[in-house]
Design a protein that fits this description.
The structure is a homodimer. Chain A contains six helices and two strands; from the N terminus they run H-H-E-E-H-H-H-H. The first copy, chain A, has about 150 residues and is an all-alpha fold. The first copy, chain A, binds a DNA duplex (30 and 30 nucleotides) through helix 2.
Chain lengths: ~150, ~150
DNA sequence: TCTAAAGGCTCTAGTCACTAGAGCATCAAG
DNA sequence: CTTGATGCTCTAGTGACTAGAGCCTTTAGA
């Protein structure tokens, strides 16, 4: 049995994130010691490692919740788990396609910049006039930033 | 002069999003008609088109704010605008690299699935055991989902 | 001219997956 | 026994919107 800090160190998941996972029901409420501090065992560690790995692969928490539910039932068909992974793969592929188009547009923009004044800047100009673009873009909602 | 609805239709930006941009100071507070409804002119339309296009290219609102500030000063050097675009390009490239690694991992996982039971499912197994992975992953925070 | 639907208004709260901070309690090492 | 690290709960903030409630104004047709 170990503390939340040890669990965090063992899995690479930050302490507040572990508490957050507990709060949203992704991790079971653990036992506490006499001083009300959380105590974890190896099963909890394995579950958290699973969550962390799935997050690294880009699975949203809802999908992870589903995968965890499935993994609790070793006898059932893995069809559903397979479908979730396929869906995730499709999304990753779609985002790669999308980002490649973005990269091309940004490269074009940056390479055309003659490093003069704002008035003649291609970066500003292209942003202001979509017609100067090589192709259409997707919805803004489909392009997201990282932390 | 046109209404917020016409502006939305003209730029492809949703009405609540326009009001949100006004709220956060990205768009100036427009004039109102006698019934307190917003009235926009072509300058506002051009500014919103700029914002929309930059969003499509993945620029965060803070960078867009900066670019808009720069574009208001046509005489200055475009060095800064160029730097912002380069930064954005670098981020897009980093994300592509990252997503390609994810795709490889997900493909490996999915292709190894024999469509049997959960107990023998490679998807569940690989997620639970990082050691089965072909390579390391980044922090979960570096992989984000789309809407 | 009347009416009804479409569009507009403000305000609050929700999304996702955390992260930060306040203010306090507990534990472990020296 | 002290002190610093670690733990606790709770609230609020992040980015870029989105949804909904409850109301008011405009516009097109009869």
């Amino acid at each position: 049995m170990f503390s939340i800090g040890k669990l965090a160190a063992a899995t690479g998941v930050k302490v507040p994130t572990i508490r957050y996972y507990e709060q949203i029901g992704l991790l079971a409420t653990p036992d506490r010691n006499s001083g009300n501090q959380r105590l974890y065992d190896d099963a909890a560690r394995a579950r958290l490692a699973f969550i962390r790995h799935a997050r690294e692969l880009g699975f949203p928490l809802d999908a992870i919740r589903e995968l965890l539910g499935l993994s609790d039932d070793p006898a059932r068909s893995c069809e559903q788990a397979d479908a979730i992974a396929q869906r995730q793969l499709a999304q990753v592929e779609a985002r790669i396609t999308r980002l490649n188009a973005l990269r091309a547009e940004l490269e074009r923009m940056v390479h055309q910049c003659a490093h003069g004044t704002i008035a003649e800047c291609r970066v500003i100009e292209v942003l202001g006039n979509h017609a100067l673009c090589a192709h259409e873009h997707a919805e803004p909602s489909l392009v997201q930033e990282e932390a």
